[in-house]
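thought: user wants a sequence for this fold. calling inverse folding tool.
action: design(structure=
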């Protein structure tokens, strides 16, 4: 009988020890391990999304960079940009960049073609110009109905250094109406007339830059109405 009681006590003690071991050593490990493993895919996914977004921007710039037009008013020291809208030489830019009677030079894809002013819209600050050049690269127009607050956007324009380089600046859409698109991008006024694009490289509008260097775009709806496309 004594042996039986001893055996029960031993079994009881072993059970207690096993419970303590499981609770203090095994259980925390089992609880923490899945949490650690689950965090790995989240970090990987975030990294992949960042890489994809950067690649998308690079691809968009590469696709549209030859459609950017640099504009210089020689006798008034005015600089700006515009955008090719048809392969046979139609370009659109800001009316304020093309003063009447000015002596202009237009730079597109490494060329400086002759030009002719076709029409102006002083109210909406737009001007349509025909360059004597063919086979120019064009851009796609964005659908204004698909514009969203917080949407990523970037501008692309020409800066007049020795190499006539292009400049990219990225941000997002802060606010928009049918009359304008406000961004959180700041830039110098020499980038007036630069184009605003979505991340797919579709034209959202043409940029005006105020005295505080805030970038606001004339929306694509106004541009399409003006040029008749």
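)
observation: tool returned 229 residues.
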């Amino acid at each position: 009988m004594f042996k039986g009681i001893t055996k029960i006590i031993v079994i009881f003690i072993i059970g207690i020890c096993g419970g303590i071991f499981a609770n203090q050593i095994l259980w925390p490990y089992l609880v923490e391990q899945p949490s650690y493993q689950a965090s790995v895919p989240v970090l990987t996914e975030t990294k992949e999304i960042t890489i994809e977004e950067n690649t998308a921007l690079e691809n968009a710039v590469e696709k549209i960079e030859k459609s950017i037009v640099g504009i210089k008013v020689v006798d008034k020291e005015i600089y700006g940009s515009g955008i090719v809208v048809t392969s046979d030489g139609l370009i659109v830019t800001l009316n304020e960049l093309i003063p009447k009677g000015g002596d202009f030079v237009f730079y597109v894809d490494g060329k400086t073609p002759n030009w002719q002013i076709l029409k102006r819209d002083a109210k909406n600050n737009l001007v349509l110009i025909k360059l004597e050049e063919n086979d120019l690269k064009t851009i796609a127009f964005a659908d204004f109905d698909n514009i969203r607050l917080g949407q990523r956007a970037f501008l692309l324009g020409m800066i007049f250094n020795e190499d006539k380089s292009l400049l990219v600046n990225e941000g997002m859409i802060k606010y928009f109406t049918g009359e304008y698109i406000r961004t959180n991008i700041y830039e110098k006024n020499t980038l007036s007339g630069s184009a605003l694009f979505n991340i797919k490289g579709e034209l959202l509008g043409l940029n005006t830059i105020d005295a505080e260097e805030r970038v606001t775009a004339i929306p694509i709806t106004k541009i399409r109405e003006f040029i008749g496309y």
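thought: summarizing for user.
answer: Here is the designed sequence. Helices lie at 2-64, 220-227.
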